[in-house]
Design goal:
685 residues; L-fuculose-1-phosphate Aldolase; alpha/beta; 8-stranded mixed β-sheet; Rossmann fold; 3 domains; binds nicotinamide-adenine-dinucleotide
C-alpha cells in the first residue's frame, strides 16, 4: 500500500544530502556555513495525486557539511517560477523572500534563504552555489571576466556583481539559457554556481570549476603577491609568540567589547603569520573582505596593528588603544556615509578581527563559535586576496555595497530571529577543581547558562572528561593545574586567555580535606591544606584579577569556602583554618578589587557527600566515624542535623555560584552565602 503522504525522502534528496556533505567537508570548496545546494524532483502531490515538481534547497543558516533533511526548504516549482510574473523589479526584490512562504510544499521545511530564487529559476535539476577561495579569487580580480574566459573558455560564464536575491536568480537563469554549453558561472565579487541534470553531474562540475581555478592561480600566479617579508615583522618564535598573544589578548578583548561584550579566538596559522609579516599588509587589509559571508562576520575590514609584535609591551598597548579609537571613528564615519533613514541602527563600532605582526590574528564574536568562524573567514579572505593579487589586482565589491549587505533589512531580520543570549553568554569562567564534585557541577551550570568554561584541575583526565561533556572546545577547555604552584597557575590562566580571550569569572573551588585532631595533624597536613586552599586561591585570584584588570570589563571571583570557615567542627584544625583564610580573602579582595568592578563573594557549603571526591577519598569515613554513623548514611545524617532536613548536593552549590555571578546580585560583594540546608551554629552575623 502506498502511503498518502510519503514518509521517506525521495532518492534525489538523499543524493543531495550526500553531495552536500562531501562538498562541505572540504574547506577548499566552501567556507563554513557558506553556499547552498538544491535538487528538483517530481513527486505525487498528496492532495491531487498528480505529479508535482518540488525543489529541496538548503535553507537559511546551517552548514553544508552537516546538512540534514530538516535543514532543507521544500518549495513547489510551479508557484516559485510563477513569482517571475509578479516580481516588481530589483528595487523591491527583498519582498520576494516573504513571497517564498506562499510557494512551500507541505509545511515547507526550513526557512528559505535569499539564494532560493537562483536555485529555482535555473532549469537544471541540481544546483550548487559555493564560496571556494579559488573561485572568489577570480571573482574579486579586477579583470575577473577576462581571467574567467582565459581559465574556462566559454564553459563557465562571468556574472557581474549583484547582491544575492531574486534578480541575481533571474540573471543566472538567463545566462544558463543563453549558454547551453556552460556548466556554471563565476559570480563577480562573490563565489561560484554550477548546475547539472543529476546530482553527480552537478557535483563533478562544481569540483571541476574549483580545481581548475586553483590550478589556474598556481600556474599563472606571481610569487609574493603580498610583497616582501618585513624584517621586523617576522613571526616570533612559538613560545614567545603565544606569551605575547596572552599578554595582548585581555586588552584587545576589552577594547573589542566596548559596545558589546565579546568572546575571542586566537590564530597563529601559517597563512596568517605570513600575511601579517608582509609589506603590503596594511594596504590590502584596508580593502576589506568581499564575499558577503566573509565580511558579515569579519566586519568590513580588520584593525591592523602597525608596530612589530615584540615591541615593548607598554608601547604596543598604547598604540593599540589609539588604533582602536581610530577604528571606531572610521567605522562610525562608514556607517554615516551610507546609512539611509531606514537603515538599522549601527551595531557597534569595534573591530571583529585584529591583526598583529609577528603574533597573529585575534577575532571576536558573541560566542566562541562566532569568534572562531570570523577567524576562519578571514583566513578565507587572505587566501582570496592572495589568489586575486597573484594573477591580477584584488578588487572587492564597493564599500557602499558592503554597507548595503551589512545593514540589509533581511540580515537584520535574521539577527532578530536569533534566540536571546543566555544569562552568562560571553562570560569566561575559570573553575578550579572542576574535574569532580562541586567544581564539576559548577562547570556544568555555568556552561548551561552560556559561559565559556575552563575546567581546571590537578587531575587532567577528569577535567578533560568534564570539558568533553560540556561540548568540546567551543564551550569548554580543560587545563591541568596544581593551584599551589605559581608557575602552573599563571600558565593555566594564560591558556584560558588563549582559548577564549580572557577571564571574567573565577571559582576558587579546588580543595581537599584532612580530618585530624590537633595532636595528629602533621606539618605536612597543615601545609598541604593551606597550600591548595589558602595559597592556591590566592594565586588564582592574583593571576585572574590581573587579566580582569587588563580587560576593564569587571569580573567575579567566588570562593567555595565552607561551613567550617566559621564553625569549629571536631578534629578539623588544618582544614577549618584554611577555609577561614579563604573566607577572609573574600572580604580583603572585595575591598581591594571593587574599584575595578570585580566582585568577590563566597559560598559556605556543608555536607555535600554525593559526588564529592573528598568524601569518597577518606574524609567521609573519618567524618562518619567521628559522628558514629555508617559511611553510606552520612548524607542522610547531615540532612537530619540541618534545619531544613534536606541533603545538600553539588548542584545546590552550583546554583549559589550562578546567583552570585548572574544578572541579579550585581550590587553585592564581600558576601558569603551558606548552602548547608540550615546549620544554626554556622549562621553568619
Ligand atoms: N563536599 C563538601 O561537603 C564540602 C563542604 C564545604 C566545602 N567544600 C569545598 O568544596 C570544594 C570542592 O569539594 P568537593 O567536595 O567537590 O571535592 P572533590 O574532591 O570532589 O573535588 C575537588 C577537586 O579539586 C581538585 N584538586 C585538589 N587539589 C588540587 C590542586 N592542588 N590543584 C588543582 N586541583 C586540585 C581535585 O582533583 C578534585 O577534582 C573544596 O574546596 C571543599 O573544601 C566541600
Amino acid at each position: 500500500m502506498i502511503p498518502l503522504v510519503a514518509n521517506d525522502p525521495p532518492r534525489e534528496v538523499i543524493e543531495l544530502l550526500e553531495r552536500s556533505h562531501r562538498l562541505g567537508a572540504d574547506p577548499r570548496n566552501t567556507n563554513y556555513a557558506g553556499g547552498n545546494t538544491s535538487t528538483k524532483a517530481l513527486i505525487a502531490d498528496p492532495v491531487t495525486g498528480t505529479d508535482t515538481e518540488v525543489m529541496w534547497v538548503k535553507g537559511s543558516g546551517g552548514d553544508l557539511g552537516t546538512l540534514q533533511e530538516a535543514g532543507l526548504a521544500m518549495l513547489r516549482l510551479d508557484r516559485l517560477r510563477a513569482l517571475v510574473g509578479v516580481y516588481p523589479g530589483p528595487e523591491r526584490e527583498d519582498e520576494m523572500v516573504a513571497a517564498f512562504d506562499f510557494c512551500m510544499h507541505g509545511r515547507g521545511g526550513a526557512a528559505p534563504s535569499i539564494d532560493t530564487a537562483m536555485h529555482g529559476l535555473v532549469s537544471c535539476t541540481n544546483v550548487d552555489h559555493l564560496h571556494p577561495d579559488a573561485g572568489i579569487a577570480l571573482a574579486t580580480a579586477a579583470d575577473g571576466e577576462k581571467l574567467t574566459a582565459q581559465c574556462f573558455g566559454d564553459t563557465v560564464v562571468w556574472v557581474p556583481w549583484r547582491r544575492p536575491g531574486f534578480q541575481l536568480g533571474l540573471d543566472i537563469a538567463a545566462i544558463q539559457e543563453a549558454n547551453p554549453q556552460a556548466i556554471g558561472c563565476i559570480l563577480g565579487g562573490h563565489g561560484i554556481t554550477a548546475w547539472g541534470n543529476s546530482s553527480d553531474e552537478c557535483e563533478s562540475r562544481s569540483l571541476h570549476i574549483i580545481r581548475t581555478a586553483e590550478q589556474f592561480l598556481v600556474a599563472n600566479g606571481r610569487p609574493d603577491p603580498f610583497g616582501e617579508v618585513v624584517e621586523a615583522n617576522i613571526p616570533l618564535e612559538s613560545t614567545a609568540r603565544r606569551a605575547r598573544a596572552a599578554e595582548l589578548f585581555p586588552l584587545l578583548r576589552g577594547l573589542a567589547s566596548t559596545d558589546t561584550r565579546q568572546v575571542g579566538h586566537y590564530s597563529d596559522a601559517e597563512v596568517v603569520l605570513d600575511f601579517v609579516s608582509r609589506g603590503r599588509l596594511a594596504e590590502l587589509a584596508a580593502l576589506g573582505t568581499s564575499c558577503p559571508d566573509h565580511f558579515l562576520r569579519t566586519k568590513v575590514r580588520p584593525m591592523v596593528v602597525d608596530l612589530p609584535g615584540d615591541a615593548p609591551l607598554e608601547e604596543l598597548e598604547k598604540r593599540i588603544r589609539e588604533l582602536h579609537q581610530d577604528y571606531r571613528r572610521e567605522y562610525q564615519a562608514y556607517y554615516e556615509r551610507y546609512a539611509t533613514p531606514d537603515s538599522p541602527a549601527m551595531r557597534g563600532a569595534d573591530p571583529a578581527v585584529v591583526l598583529v605582526p609577528g603574533v597573529g590574528m585575534f577575532s571576536f564574536g558573541r560566542d566562541k563559535q562566532t569568534a572562531r568562524v570570523a577567524s576562519e573567514f578571514y583566513i578565507n579572505a587572505i587566501n582570496v586576496m592572495h589568489g586575486a593579487e597573484s594573477v591580477s589586482t584584488y578588487a572587492p565589491i564597493s564599500e557602499e555595497e558592503k554597507f548595503r549587505i551589512e545593514y540589509w533589512e533581511l540580515e537584520e531580520q535574521k539577527l532578530r530571529r536569533m534566540a536571546p543570549p543566555k544569562a552568562l553568554a560571553t562570560r569566561i569562567a575559570f573553575v578550579t577543581g572542576a574535574g569532580s564534585g562541586i567544581g564539576a557541577a559548577t562547570a556544568r551550570r555555568l556552561s548551561a547558562e552560556g559561559a565559556c568554561v575552563i575546567v581546571a584541575d590537578l587531575n587532567f583526565e577528569s577535567a578533560e572528561l568534564v570539558a568533553k561533556e560540556l561540548g568540546g572546545s567551543d564551550k569548554a577547555f580543560a587545563v591541568s593545574v596544581d593551584v599551589s604552584s605559581p608557575e602552573e597557575v599563571v600558565a593555566a590562566i594564560n591558556k584560558s586567555v588563549l582559548a577564549f580571550g580572557g577571564v571574567d569569572l573565577v571559582v576558587n573551588n579546588a580543595g581537599l580535606s584532612i580530618s585530624k585532631s590537633l595532636q595528629d595533624t602533621t606539618i605536612e597536613d597543615w601545609d598541604r591544606q593551606h597550600s591548595v586552599m589558602a595559597r592556591g586561591s590566592f594565586l588564582v585570584s592574583q593571576a585572574a584579577a590581573k587579566v580582569m584588570m587588563a580587560q576593564s570589563m569587571g569580573g567575579d571571583i567566588i570562593y567555595i569556602a565552607s561551613k567550617n570557615a566559621v564553625f569549629a567542627g571536631p578534629n578539623n584544625v588544618a582544614y577549618g583554618a584554611a577555609k577561614a583564610d579563604q573566607a577572609h580573602q573574600v572580604r580583603l579582595l572585595a575591598a581591594e578589587l571593587g574599584q575595578y568592578g570585580i566582585r568577590v563573594n563566597g559560598i559556605n557549603p556543608d555536607g555535600v557527600v554525593r559526588g564529592s571526591g573528598i568524601f569518597a577519598g577518606g574524609w567521609g569515613a573519618q567524618r562518619a566515624s567521628v559522628y558514629g554513623v555508617e559511611e553510606d548514611k552520612l548524607g542522610e545524617f547531615y540532612a537530619q542535623r540541618t534545619l531544613l532536613k534536606r541533603e545538600v548536593l553539588p548542584e545546590h552549590v552550583a546554583s549559589a555560584v550562578f546567583v552570585l555571578c548572574g544578572p541579579e546580585l550585581v550590587h553585592t560583594t564581600g558576601l558569603h552565602i551558606a548552602v548547608d540546608a540550615g546549620v544554626a551554629a554556622a549562621f553568619l552575623r
